[in-house]
Amino acid sequence: MPTIRVTVPKNAWTKGEKADIVTTLTDGLNTVAGQSGKGDIKQYINVHIEETSEGGYAMGGTVVG
Question: What top-level class would CATH report for the domain 3-64?
Answer without folding.
Answer: alpha beta
